[in-house]
Amino acid sequence: MQAPRETPSSNAATVLVVDDDYQVRQIIQLVLESAGYQVLVARDGTDTLAVLESAADPIALAVIDFNLPGMDGRRLATRINTVSPSTRILFISGQPVDSLMDYGLVQDSWFLQKPFTHAQLLARAAQRLQP
Asked: Is the Cα torsion angle 97, 20, 84, 71 positive or negative in sign?
């Protein structure tokens, strides 16, 4: 898969991508970077907390796989928002949204069903970053 080519913005938001699947992380990173976002990556909750502590710029958006080993996506989102309350969350998962609604925090704009296209990812990221 090739990421769409777009002109990077010098004022791009910083996005944190958290997924335990290396290939998924890499593809999402490439797509977001091609759209001008600054991208940080982590494979699990422990990595994420380390990235949050060392990040030079505020993290505007965290794209989190809902089913992570150790600390699940819901708990991780809570931890991220404790450290960085302004960070917006976008959950991704191979599970249908209906099964995640039981957690009471997945709204349409907060979720993207895997597999998704590059265009869907960029559109949902932009939507979550809107005030």
From this structure: positive
